[in-house]
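Example (one chain per record):
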Amino acid sequence: MTEKSTTMLGEEPSPQDIEALDKLKVDIVEQLRAADVKFPIKTKADLANIYPKGTRKSCMYKGQEVSLHDMINNIDDRAFPLENAGDTAIALVSSCQMNVVK
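Predicted structure:
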């Protein structure tokens, strides 16, 4: 009998999930750099100004889609300030997983 692996966020992501999340991280970093976003991003409100409601970029995880704007509320306050594009991408993608698992 084999046990299904789980994580704090529920069932372990599939290789396809990991690939999609990694691609989203790269896309977010590229988008923030292209927009010449100034860092640090100090608060969720600052991040929401960068990704306002209606932002078309979204995260697809476990067959569910969540907009980047909707992910912001689930980012832990302790993650701020976000010092660079990579930190921002990691915070958003981690929040995507939490939004879907809820």
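Caption: Residues 14-101 form a domain with the Recoverin; domain 1 fold (CATH 1.10.238).
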